[in-house]
Amino acid sequence: MDIMFHLGAHCTDDGKLMRSLLRSRGAFADGRVEIPGPRSYRVLLRETIGILHGATASAEVQSLLLDGMTETDDAERVILFHENLICLPPKVLSPAGLYPMAPDRIAAMRGLFPDHHCRFQIAMLHPALMIWGLLARNVAADYTALMAGIAPKILRWRPLVEAILEKNPDIDLTLWCHEDAAVLWPEILRDLVGLPDTMPLEGDADMALTLLTDTGTEALARSFRETPPRDGVERTERLTDALARNANPALVEQALDYPGWTEAAVTKMTRTYEADCAALAARGDVRFLTAPVAVPA
């Protein structure tokens, strides 16, 4: 069985991905894929990790976990959404960088199901936007309290992913940039459920629809409803065009006005983030999602 862990990151899709899958479940209604309700597993997984304390789950424990999460014995894939399984929001940022607990916590998750194939998804986010998102969720009283002396320059994804891979050298890991999620959404959904590129899903345009003006939302929804795209290339073209024409500036632009930050500092962080993402995309040991492009005739 494939055990799929979508681990966020925090401040990315905020549950939209699970809702898109549930809207799309008519495409995999044969019972091959199960999407358990979060209440059936979030506390269960956290408590079991604590009990095992680094040990590997026995066949009996694995069976008990799956029985507690799933409704049938026929599922080939179980999809779990749990961004807090790595850490709670107040611990996302640390003097050691982003998500310092992630390598060990992911190893512990794999230890829950050693007889099954565990796969992991992580959406990366510009660190400055991560700070903005955590503040918007009242994780700390203000910027100073959130950062607690942490140097912004150490908040990088490449060292984090490298640490995850070092601790879990044979991990099945899928990454993408959340900034591209509106266009990548169809590919993200298909990576979760294992459906072919040509299979339409109800939730394909869900993320893009949240970023458009009212006029753009109506036009894109009608387009996908009346003439579903034939494949990933056509989906990408339509989503990209809709965002270029009708993106709502209030929804796609964030003011990053933090104490002590300058425009040059934000630019430098952006370049570092982009370089880290490019380096990770070039690795051969992770799956890095990018939008499909048309091949010239």
Q: Give the count of structural domains.
A: 1
Series of H and E elements: EHEHHEEEHEHHHEHHHHHHE
The total of beta strands comes to 8
In CATH terms, what is the architecture? 3-Layer(aba) Sandwich
Overall pLDDT, averaged?
93
Q: Taking strands numbered 1, 2, ... along the chain, how are they ordered across the largest sheet?
A: 2-3-1-6-7-8
Low-pLDDT parts are none
Core attributes:
13 helices, alpha/beta, 8 strands
Describe this structure in words.
This protein has 297 residues and is α/β, with parallel strands linked by helices. The chain has a single domain (2-288), classed as Rossmann fold (3-Layer(aba) Sandwich), CATH 3.40.50. 45% of the residues lie in helices and 11% in strands. It contains 13 helices and eight strands. The protein has helices spanning 16-23, 42-52, 59-69, 102-112, 127-136, 143-147, 157-167, 181-193, 206-209, 214-226, 232-246, 249-252, 263-281, and strands at 2-6, 33-34, 77-81, 93-94, 97-98, 117-124, 172-177, 287-288. The strands form two sheets. A six-stranded parallel beta sheet has the order 2-3-1-6-7-8, sandwiched between helices. It has a two-stranded antiparallel ribbon with strand order 4-5. A hairpin with a 2-residue loop joins strand 4 (93-94) and strand 5 (97-98). The longest helix has 19 residues, at 263-281. The N and C termini lie far apart (40 Å).
